[in-house]
Structure formats: C-alpha cells, structure tokens
Design goal:
It is a single chain. It contains four helices and 27 strands. The chain has 436 residues and is mostly beta strands. The longest helix has 23 residues, at 2-24. The structure holds 2-acetamido-2-deoxy-beta-D-glucopyranose (6 copies). The site of one 2-acetamido-2-deoxy-beta-D-glucopyranose (NAG) has 5 residues, from strand 10.
C-alpha cells in the first residue's frame, strides 16, 4: 500500500517535471541566430560619451564604432551604454558588434532635422516612401554588415519622432522621414531586450537582409503618430520576430518587398518569416502582409497574436501595378478585442511611386490559411476584395469565431469580391465564395 502510494507520487512528480520541461522548451527564434556574448567590451564613456541628456554624443558614437571596426578583435566587441541619456545624431553600426544598452540607458536622437543626412532611395522603392528623391538616413543605420546585435537590459532607443510627425502633418517634409533602426544588405542580426520609443517613421526595418531575429522588444509610439510601423521585414529572408509588445500608430508587423515597377525589377522577395507571441494595439493592422509586395512574399507563419483596440486584426494588402506573388501565408491562434475589421484581404490598397507603374502588373494572392481566430467587439469580421483580372484563390479559413457588433452603418459580416477558397467552423457564417 505505502509502496504503491510512493510509486504513484513518484510518477506524478515525474509527469509534472516533464510538463515543466516541455513548457520550458517553448519554440523560439534562437536557432536562427544564436545569441553570443562578446568578451571585449568598450564603453561609450571611454570615448567621451556623457549621458546628461544635453551633450551631443555623435563623435563618441562614431569614434567608438570606428574603433570596433578597426581593432577587429576576435569575437567582436561590445559597446556598452551605461545608464543615462545619450543624445546623438544618427550613426552607423559595424560588423561583429553588440550595442548593449544597460538598464536605464537611453540613446536619444537629436531634433536637428535641418542637418539630418540623406541617403539614396532603396532600389526596390525607386524613391523615398513618402517623398520623391532620397530619404533621411535612419537614426541607427547599417549597410552590408554581419553579426550585429542590439540588446541589453531593456534600455531605450528614443527617436524623438514628434518633430517629424509634425512636419508630416504640416506637409513641410522635403524627404522621407528616418526609420529608427534600418539594416540593409546585412545578415546574422539580433535585436532583443530593447525599448523602441517614438520613431520618426517605421521602427525596425531590415531590408535585403537574411537571418534576422527580433525578440523581447517593446515598441511604443502614440496611436496617432503617422506611419510608425513596428517591425517591417522587407525583401528579407529568415526573419523571426517573437515575444514583443508593440503599440504604435501603424501596422505592428508588416512584411514587405518593394514598390511597383521598382520592386518588380529589383525582384527581391521576402520569405520564411516567422512572427509569434506578439501583443499590441494600433489603429491599423496587427499582422500585415504588404502593401508593398512587388518582389513577392512567401512562407509566412504568424501565430499566437493578441490584439486590443485594433483597426484590422490581419491584413493582406496589395494593389494593381504591384505585381508580385503573395503565397503560403498562415496565420493562427489570434485573439482580437475591439477592431473595425477582423480579417481583411485587399487588392486596392496603397499608393503608387509615380505614373510609370504598369497597370497590367497584377499581383497574385494564393494559399492563405487563417485559422483559430477568436475576437470580440468586431465591427466587420471579414472584408475580402480581390482583383477582377487576378482573383485571389486558395483562401482557407478554419475555426474562426468573431463576435460581430455592427456599428452605426452596419455592413454584412463578410463581404467577398473576386476571391475563392474554403472554410470550416466559421462564425458568423462566411460569404458563399468561401463555402465550396
Ligand atoms: C578582421 O579579422 C578577420 C580575421 O580575424 C579577417 O578575416 C578580416 O579581414 C578582418 N577585417 C578587417 C576589416 O580588417
Ligand atoms: C553611414 O553610412 C551611409 C551609407 O550607408 C553613409 O552615406 C554615411 O556617410 C555614413 N555616415 C557616417 C557618419 O559615417
Ligand atoms: C525644405 O526645403 C525648403 C525649401 O528649400 C527649406 O526652406 C526648408 O528649410 C527645408 N526643410 C528642411 C527640414 O530641410
Ligand atoms: C526585458 O523585457 C523582457 C520582455 O520584453 C523581459 O522578458 C526581460 O526579463 C526584461 N529584462 C530585464 C533585464 O529587465
Ligand atoms: C509554406 O511555408 C512554411 C513555413 O515557412 C514552410 O514550412 C512550407 O514548406 C511552405 N510550403 C510550401 C509548399 O512551400
Ligand atoms: C500558442 O499558444 C498555445 C496555447 O494557446 C500553446 O499551446 C502553443 O504552444 C503556443 N505556440 C507558440 C508557438 O507559442
């Protein structure tokens, strides 16, 4: 009897341990780019950095990063930012470095918009995203790098974006606003445990990159700040974004790949993108694909997404003139509370870079799976508008339960035009196009 009880307790303990073990082995992005610790450390204060919130530290950052680049120590070098507020102009990172923000460290952009450097437009956009010609360089920038880490103890990178948002509102911008962090043509990048605050424009923009991990970040900007997207993987592959809280004025995560004729001729897709365990709010989309998608976007998985006070929960968007194939997109395990639209797939979203776009460059949208979605207080559960000459196909919805709370000007719960697919267990009952 006692023996039996003992055996039962041991078995119970073992199964509890196994349960804890399997919970600890939660899937993470770590396999894509393993975190590394760098033994060589320098501090911004070694280069005259002063964290008093007034001193402009541009030279300290440039000298520190120049020394990392030229000392070229085995295993790379960590640039330590101690607690304090380090005001600086924009600066460039280098390969084999870790930018480490201690707890209480803030790297803050100056408000000197008049002297902000310009760089060339991205070839896949042909011009700045919001103004013709060049664009202001991102606050923290990198081009052609490898093995770059931005991490720490949740210190802050602050873009002081309000000055830029006001220029946008007053239409006094001469060029496209700066991203907060942009890495171009780079690989093996980790961005983790940092708070991104008040970006002038998009927050984190990996473009023409591979092997990029963004995890455990907090990204915040006012809900009315224009175009402050959270993370925009653009013409990049093997990007993994997880465990982030994002509350901004535009899409939380938007996968992109170039703009109309420029994106089509550059021809660089985004592929193999994983997005998981994201929580946040925005007047626009939670998980977005497009609208810039001219290089094609494929193999995207988004799962375990929790959204509050949203414009649109999930939005796949493109336009005539974009070209590009959007395919094999799977979004699952989403909770949406309070949104204008639950799921939106649209073929008429976004502007064109100029009048030279090809109206016959029709995008293809196919193999879209959206499953295990629940929501409350949704004004319209689904709006799907394909393109007449290029209907969207293979839209598959399953196990969707969106509480339809029609607004003052109610629409049907589902509106579907030029789309086809299938559905199971969808409530309210979907449109006939998705019932085969
Ligand atoms: C840095 O050192 C590595 C070997 O340790 C070498 O391959 C590389 O060319 C060096 N880079 C520069 C910029 O000196
Ligand atoms: C940073 O890099 C860009 C090109 O990527 C270059 O135009 C700019 O001059 C660099 N800035 C500094 C301060 O070195
Ligand atoms: C924009 O251009 C106008 C006219 O050239 C100039 O007066 C103004 O200072 C510029 N603004 C900025 C922020 O560069
Ligand atoms: C930083 O924030 C993340 C969540 O975003 C949390 O998991 C981590 O424990 C925090 N780290 C520190 C040092 O506060
Ligand atoms: C679809 O995407 C997933 C996730 O990236 C990938 O594992 C799968 O192989 C892709 N399917 C096809 C048919 O390419
Ligand atoms: C997603 O959440 C479910 C529970 O809702 C959990 O079982 C699963 O492990 C989670 N998946 C990921 C990738 O976090």
């Amino acid at each position: 009897m006692t023996m039996l009880r003992l055996l039962t307790s041991v078995l119970l303990l073992l199964s509890a341990a196994a349960a804890i073990g399997s919970r600890a082995e939660e899937v993470t992005c770590s396999g894509i780019v393993p975190m590394k610790y760098r033994r060589n450390t320098i501090s911004i204060t070694d280069f005259g950095g002063v964290g008093d919130g007034r001193t402009v530290n541009s030279n300290a950052f440039r000298k520190a990063i120049y020394s990392i680049q030229h000392l070229n120590r085995t295993g790379g070098t960590r640039l330590y930012i101690p607690p304090g507020v380090y005001l600086t102009e924009s600066f460039n990172l280098t390969s084999h470095m870790t930018l480490f923000l201690a707890k209480g460290a803030v790297i803050k952009a100056t408000r000197d918009t008049l002297n902000w450097p310009l760089i060339d437009p991205l070839p896949s956009y042909g011009r700045g995203r919001e103004r013709p010609g060049g664009r202001y360089i991102s606050f923290i920038h990198g081009d052609g790098l490898e093995d770059v880490i931005i991490t720490g103890e949740n210190g802050t990178i602050d873009g002081q974006g309000d000055i830029w948002w006001n220029m946008w509102r007053q239409r006094t911008l001469n060029f496209t606003r700066p991203n907060l962090v942009e890495l171009m043509n780079s690989r093996d990048v980790i961005i983790s445990n940092v708070v991104f605050q008040n970006s002038p424009f998009w927050n984190i923009h990996p473009v023409y990159c591979s092997n990029v991990v963004v995890r455990k970040v907090t990204i915040i900007a006012p809900l009315d700040s224009p175009n402050t997207d959270g993370v925009d993987p653009d013409s990049s592959s093997n990007v993994c974004i997880e465990d982030a809280y994002i509350s901004v004025g535009d899409d939380l995560v938007a996968v992109k790949s170039g703009w109309d004729e420029y994106g089509i001729s550059y021809g660089r897709p985004s592929s193999d993108i994983t997005i998981r365990r994201i929580t946040g709010s925005s007047p626009f989309a939670g998980i977005a694909v497009g609208s810039e998608s001219s290089g094609g976007i494929e193999n995207v998985v988004a799962e375990n997404i929790t959204l509050y006070k949203m414009g649109v929960g999930i939005h796949i968007k493109t336009n005539t003139g974009r070209g590009g194939i959007i395919k094999n997109i799977t979004v699952s395990n989403v909770y949406i509370e309070n949104a204008r639209k639950g799921i939106k797939i649209s073929g008429n979203v976004g502007d064109h870079p100029d009048d030279n776009y090809n109206p016959n460059a029709l995008p293809v949208v196919k193999e879209i799976t959206i499953k295990d979605v629940s929501g409350v207080k949704i004004l319209q559960p689904g709006l799907m508008q394909g393109i007449k000459k290029s209907p969207f196909t293979g839209i598959y919805l399953s196990n969707i339960n969106l509480e339809w709370v029609p607004g003052p000007r109610p629409s049907a719960p589902w509106t579907c035009i030029d789309v086809s697919g299938d559905s199971t267990k969808v409530s309210p009952s979907p449109c006939s196009e998705l019932l085969t």
